[in-house]
Fold this protein.
Amino acid sequence: MATINELKESMHSGSSEEIVAEYLERIEKSKLNAFITVAKESAINRAREIDSKGEKGMFSGIPIAIKDNISTKGIQTTCASKILSGYVPPYDAHVIERLKEAGAIIIGKTNMDEFAMGTSTETSFYGPTRNPWDMERVPGGSSGGSAAAVAGGEAPFSLGSDTGGSVRCPASFCGIVGLKPTYGVISRYGLISYANSLEQIGSFATCVRDVTMLFDVIAGHDSRDSTSVDRIDTHLDARTYASALVNDVKGLKIGVPEEYFDEGTDKGVENSVRDAINTLEELGAKSQIVMMPHTKYALSAYYIIAMSEASSNLARFDGMRYGLRTEDSDWHTTFSQVRAAGFGDEVKRRIMLGTYALSAGYHDRYYLKALKIRTLIKQDFELAFKDVDVLIAPTMPYPAFKIGEKIDDPISLYLSDVDTVPVNLAGVPSISVPCGFSGGLPIGMQIIGKHFDEAAILRTAFTFEENTDFHNKTPEGM
């Protein structure tokens, strides 16, 4: 699988159209079900335009896959839900504008858990995506299509979104790199909302350098998103992340939160992550145990907050303005019919639980209490980072599980997110990089940083990658 720089080099003797055509052919032959919509015609036309004009943007002529909850003007955007089937946005998300300015070509929209609600990409109206390492296993979720497309060689890089681990989970399960940045560093304008205070657009690639190049392009302030950080105020430069890619961790202080290695963590996962920490220590870093006592409450708090925000956000899907429409009746009947027919079981479950948590008499008992726990979890991170530069833990407690294994047991699926949701509650950045294998399936290591300190986690991830070979492993036949 080619890196971005390798693809750019190949265009010196070839063309963008040839590159795009090759990826389209792979998608057409694929059995992964990684894409919901393939933008074949527009991708080829754009490639021809770039070839004829000789454009020289950062990603000119390079195809990219986009998660199907990010708005793309003129290309269907469904959130993998029947209720948005046929919806074509009249505008681009901020990140899509940035990518187009850089010359990237949107090759298609990737499969996902419906409205990003899931850990396995099994709740999609368009059927489950399969893991390139084992076609009987899930690719992770909710951005499973974006991860599987990259791991399966159907796109060199892709965008996803991460509300509680939805970039890092599939990156771990598919053996690639996935970055979830600090909340507010990337504009959410054009990201169809699930849980506003938690979600962040993230990126996938086969190596840390490519993820960083993509991050450099899409990061930055956007006045249309009230949560977008004004980098002038934070003295941060959105174009300097590549400078963090230094093969050196001498003096780096690593915190190891033992709460993330708790009961239920696969032994192969634990051993691989601890071996990875040892590798970084051999390269000059130092590690120490850190305590994060409120981690045990994170999962409960996360799901109350996420479901409550989903209950509010998804109220806009009423069948009146776009998407699915049933036979006309009075507003109340139409609203009920559209949502009953258009939403899948998991989305309905989360809407109902969120509505209950926000209802009179229960708001303080559940939602308000969850917000208080969120504050304590954020304080855990702040205290830990007084002594260390980064935290390292497993991304997921186990490797990819089989399709159908957990889908009928929602609690078991929710528990899969135990190591990723605290990061979203705190809003800190995190990156998942391949660090080993268990039973032939890839394992991801999660490197967590301070707010706005993506440089530290990118440097750590890059150094580990430069001194190991896990990122070079690919699924058989890919």
About this structure: Residues 232-236 have pLDDT under 50 and may be disordered. The chain has one domain: 4-293+378-472. The first strand starts at residue 35 and ends at 38.
